[in-house]
Here is the input.
Amino acid sequence: MSDLSSSASSAPANFIHQIIVRDLEQGKNGGRVHTRFPPEPNGYLHIGHAKSICLNFGTAQKFGGKCNLRFDDTNPEKENLEYVESIKASIQWLGFDWEERLFYASDYFEQLHAYAVALIEAGKAYVCSLSAEAARAYRGTLTEPGRNSPDRERAIAQNLDLFRRMRAGEFPDGTYTLRAKIDMASPNLNLRDPVLYRIRHQHHHQTGDKWCIYPMYDYTHCISDALENITHSLCTLEFEDHRPLYDWILDQLAVPSHPQQIEFARLNFNYTVMSKRKLKQLVDEKLVSGWNDPRMPTLEGLRRRGYTPASIRNFCDMVGVTKANSVVDVGMMEHCLREDLDRCAPRAMCVLRPLKVVLSNYPQGQVEPISLARHPKDDSMGQRTVPFTRELYIDRSDFEASPPAGYKRLVPGGEVRLRGAYVIRCDDIIKNAVGDIVELRCSCDLATLGANPEGRKVKGVIHWVSATQSREVEVRLYDRLFTHENPDSAEGDYRDKLNPDSLKVLHGCRVEPSLCEAQPEERFQFEREGYFCADRFDSKPGVPVFNLTIGLRDTWAKIQNG
Ligand code: ATP
Ligand code: MG
Here is the structure.
């Protein structure tokens, strides 16, 4: 399992942890802390979910408690097993473990049904025949009370009979609902006789065709929490107004426990969309290559892009847990990523846009093995061998025939150091018939291997690979998926704000030979270019495909530190 040193266990106390500390001091829940992460398998997890995962699993870790994984699977028409599997993989990848506690709300369908029957018997629920449209009209508004359903006073025996027949499949979708009998005049709309069950003749990924009535989220969630003896049910702020219903339902029933719901603020980002509906639309309309496209804010997308689990956990710690909704600068997450990659990514050289250099005074056919550190600050990573030869490639952007002022790289008649190797001077430029530069003729100062002789000043250092010993690879340069800071803003459709340059595929890039051994998901710093990782799916043994994870420039850190 990955390094967990930076998980929530070392995070400063947030308001939820303060509540838990108080509960423990007062001996509440017999000193237990038990949380759950409750995803609905209707899409892949995104970075917002990571905040909830880190909070729920991290809180359990911090207090020596437990955290369950529970699929909230009450909407079969939108759910499927592909989503279930990807959610499990993403949580494990983040470094968390639900051990043997994997549950589905659908595990409780029988119990939920029995509790519903108990509510009917107690006169606390009734079968309602209002259509969805009529029910909306009866519901009232924020300023006007609702009206009682004509079915509200139906006899208990008749409710029981109708509910039995709903379950038996006697009625088509939408003909009846089971509703709680609370208060149609409540200022809280969630308490105006909320629907507990609806009819859906729909196959379910866990229960097959056993059910044609499905419980609603609000009814299911609190009872599932209670059945699992959850102590602290952490959810996002939009559920604050649902808390009275959560408590009402548990108060009516002989459930084994009454968990405490606590709300916290969602994580929102600039330059992306995070609603599952929109992410699914991007996938369905093929605006991205899939849920795991490296530009997607999904955990599978971030993973494929090269994000480390530790960087995401650190980021979630840094964002903290509060009651105030806010938009976090995506630069902050990129900062956490760079910090982690700087520490753990070995260095290597890759020339993205090769320009040939021939060293006229270097022996033909000689292959000189140059040993370079894999990491400048971590000797334990050891050395790699980079072959040096007469013919090399440098990047096109590292040569300027007519350099602007202050240009420090290679220019006609000028000198530059090849990283870890020799100082070279450009003597001649070779052009093709249409005037493009195709090759540079340079001379190599053989007295300068790895170091400058006394008094010698060479400003620029550029990266390089051998022309004959390097390998050709494909490199995919990714940028933000949206050009607009807030794609969800009111003006226009979010899809019109997609960045047309979010993916550039480069062919014919050249890497030092050691990079051919790169394993899928292995991450590197390509010197002077950025952090890259070998694509999980498209890399073949000996032929990696590299994804740009993130560039080297950390503008966020600069802004924060003044
Ligand atoms: P929806 O319910 O619209 O499909 P959701 O984002 O709420 O989308 P869930 O699968 O229900 O998806 O979310 C699982 C858990 O993750 C919930 O407890 C939810 O509150 C939490 N969560 C979802 N999005 C965020 C976010 N942006 N920040 C923090 N927590 C989130
Ligand atoms: Mg939800």
In short: Confidence is low (pLDDT under 50) at residues 1-9. The chain has 13 helices and 27 strands.
